């Protein structure tokens, strides 16, 4: 299992939180931002920090699920760093899971998914991040 993708996402959110805070402070001092604009930047920073901490919690205490599924399609809608993969199991349940490029290279060796092949996908349920893939 490779939980690095969840750690990468958490680290990126925390770094963005710090950058947002520092940019807001700098803009307030040097660009004469109004106080409510600074508060908005701080609010955005806190929200990013909270999401980063939630992802750290998912990485420390993962809720691991394993399913046998067929690959359906992939999309990049709403995913900043990675892609969203859509799978269907034999009961018709749909799984929309995410995988970043580092995880793809590490656990799937950069291969492409093929239809009509059953994959055993292990994922962290709370973040929907894939942590292991095996072809059956």
Total of DSSP H or I helical runs spanning 4+ residues: 3
Quantity of strands, as a count: 5
| Helix-strand category | alpha+beta
Please state roughly what percent of the residues sit in beta strands, choosing from under 5%, 5-15%, 15-25%, 25-35%, 35-45% or over 45%: 25-35%
- What's the overall average pLDDT, rounded? 89
Strand order of the largest sheet: 3-2-1-4-5
| Alpha-carbon distance between the two ends | 17 Å
- Quick one: biggest sheet? 5 strands, antiparallel
CA-atom Rg in angstroms: 18 Å
Which regions contain 5 or more consecutive residues with pLDDT less than 50? Answer: none
Order of helices and strands: HHEEEHEE
Shape, please?
elongated
Helix percentage: 40-55%
Any chance you could write out the topology, listing elements then pairs?
Layout: H1 4-30, H2 35-60, E1 64-75, E2 83-88, E3 94-99, H3 101-108, E4 118-124, E5 129-135
Antiparallel strand pairs: 1-2, 1-4, 2-3, 4-5
